[in-house]
Amino acid sequence: MIVEGTYPLPGTPDVIWNLLMDPEVLVKAMPGTKELVRTAPDRYEGVMRIGIGPITAAEFELVILLTDMKEPHSYAMQIDGKGRAGFTRGTASVELSPDGAGSMMHYSADLQVGGKIAAVGQRLLDSVSKLMTRQGLEALNRELQSRLGGAAV
Amino acid sequence: MAGRYVGERVLRLEDARLLTGRALFVDDLQLPGLLHVAFLRSDEAHARITRIDATAARSRPGVLAAYTATDLGDYWRPGPLLVPPPPIAGLVFHTATQVPLARDKVRHVGEPLAMVVAESRYLAEDALEDIVVELDPLPAVTDLEAALLEPASLVHEQFGSNLAAHVQQRKGDYAAARAAAHRVIARRFHYDRGAAAAIENRGVVAQWDARVEELTVWDTTQAPIPIRNGLAALLGLRESQVRVIAPFIGGGFGPKIMMYYPEEVLVPWAAMRLGRPVKWIEDRRENFYATTQERAQIHDAELAVSIDGKILGVRDKFLHDTGAYDPYGLTVPINTQCTLLGPYVVPHYDSEFTAVFTNKPIVTPVRGAGRQHGVFVMERLLDFAARELGIDRVEIRRRNYIQPDAFPYDHEILFQDFRPLVYDSGNYPAALEKAVELIGYDGFVKQEQPRLRREGRHVGLGIVSYIEGTGIGPYEGARVTVEPSGSVRLATGVGTQGQGHFTTFAQIVAEVLGVEVGCVQVSTGDTREFTWGTGTFASRGAVVAGSACHAAALKVREKILGLAAPLLGVPPAELVLEAGSVHVRDAPEQGMRLGELARKANPLRGAVTPGTEPGLEATAYFGPDRGNAASGVHAMLVEVDAETAAVRIKRYVVVHDCGTIINPMVVEAQVQGGVAHGIGNAFFEQLSFDENGQLMNASFMDYLLPTALDVPSVEMAHIETPSPLNPLGTKGVGEAGAIPTGAAFAQAIEDALAGSGVEITEIPLSPNRLFELLEAARGAP
User: Fold this and answer.
1) Which CATH architecture has domain A2-147?
2) Which of the residues A40, B176, B589, B592 has an alpha carbon 20 to 30 A from that of B419?
């Protein structure tokens, strides 16, 4: 499964970068995340609960490793989620570039999904992942706006 | 053999029990102290097992046991090679059979890793979450060609490649035929996976009775006797200590002949260890990976034809997906190889296949068992040849048929029963002409289709032939007993999965003994009732078990005549059996009831002639020299919506020849059901795996089965060309309906879309896929 897109955000790449490295913000930017702890400078661990079609409230243990950190321009992630309803793993990347007064975020993820979520949730995976991505980006946007004192996008 | 009952439309004797809910299915069993099982199955298609720990599961309240591979000790061993490869020169075969619980590696999604036994299924399922499993994923092997040419990994490292088997069979000199050909029609064909989707999933219940030291196992198997034998050997018991009962089963279709499934060796083992009865019932999602499936194949085939459409030769080279293990040997691809030849004279044939291990569920026969692939390839090649040569598609078939006087007809290659592929009998032209008449071929092609086309409607006709190799050995047996009540007891070893065995076998015995069909009580699938046999597969029940019933009934008839003749004071030749009595010909008053005779055959005092066997009872066995060749023609009319690519079947005609018909209603029901299966296979059902070996449609939300709205009532006609290979003259019919359906669909859809440029070389189709093909054809220059 490939998820990718671009999204304009207020603030400079530096501001956004700092937010993205803050677990408290990340929890909000990843819908369904119940907890997220930075266990090492480049490692997050947490628990995510999501629903896909007939599978409700599936919990995943999540490990995210940050790699190729080029502050404040880009970084990559290795994502590994496991739970009773299956697994998801893969890589993702985030790039930030100045765009007028704000920034443009380019994101892409190549995720492999297995187990029950792949078997019975397949036809909803795309729409659920798009929905979750949009909700996450909107949450990030709100967070940025409030931190920047309500500056317009 | 036809008579009072054989050939009659006798209502099914088992239906009263089935329709009123009194038939026993495995899941109906409720035993005191019954425990329930759930299996932890792999989410990964291919991975090394680095850790598995069931400690936490064992301490959950209500859990009695949790087993991993290491807990099985010596009981852990790979299953048997069920069907060894036939003796074909140069054959390569690598054996890799399934294991009870994965130990070092998992090789397909759904492979069992651990088993939990608990007071309820709910508790067992909950406890699965307590098991810690660490899997180190390996690249999954899913693409048949890449698996051989550039394997990302090896499913079984010990073989050094993903090749499971390689077989070449040749007849004549194809290269010479090709050189002499007017045209060579070459295409690549794809056939993808489907599920058998029986209405009843698998299930096993086992009970160990320590006082009588007997294990009873209720199993949804198609092969109760081989399961009994296997369990006895595995568990260190005498065969007589194990009773396997295959009660009423909601559809078999092939996967239930596979053995031994991990669950069916683990559940009895757990019942013995725990001293309590244990039940496991497969749920539908498990069924999508844990039960064996149909097969993907890719064919590169060519047909060499003369200018007048005569087949000069066929060359076919195909890849066969055997899944993660190959316990069923080469039955499926050899069926494909043999069935491709169909009812045609093919003077030169060169067929070569490579079976490939993949990280997908195991492939074993499913209704048709590879035959439909062969039929699809051959019928499509003939369609393309007809088009290129400007010959009518019915005519090109007519010109190539083996003629009715050419039997026995030797195709000079080996069939799945290790015997030469020699057709016993047939009348292919008669079936074709009947189908042409029933579907109204000439009228449709000349009038109706042009008229409808002018109205802008896309209607098409498909008409194809096929052979179904059926009724193979080795053997089955039956025991017939006339009881003092006058009722007749018939026991046979084959299991029954809805085919109507309780009726057809009763008809055969009733015919021989002159009793009412309803007097014959049939027992199938209980190893205590009958202890020898192999199982229900390859459309062989009526042929092989039916012939054994016939032979046993004849022996009892001899006993009746021998006993009654002195009592009635006439020679045996002057006696007739009728209405439950034996009496002097033309003098019904000089006779006696069979029940009375049965009492006389079992005296309590006095003396008998030495050597006398008590009772009116006999056991007999039947094994044919080789399989026989049932045949037929399917014809269908479809209408295609050229915008949405939806296909509607307007009519479906089957002309079928299964030799002597025992019960036309049973035959028609088998054909109708087979066609439903075939329609699913051709146009709805496809198991979609992603490149990582994940099955993406493991539920009936996403895996489409045809419904009653999609399956028309099949119009049927029968040709009866008796088989010389058994006393009944009968041939198998169980798979016939499912075999040529894809070929008929493809021809009919192409015909409906004539001029669009769409050429169909793949099955299954779907509205979606057909839409893509239409779009691609529209986009083509």
Assistant:
1) 2-Layer Sandwich (3.30)
2) B176
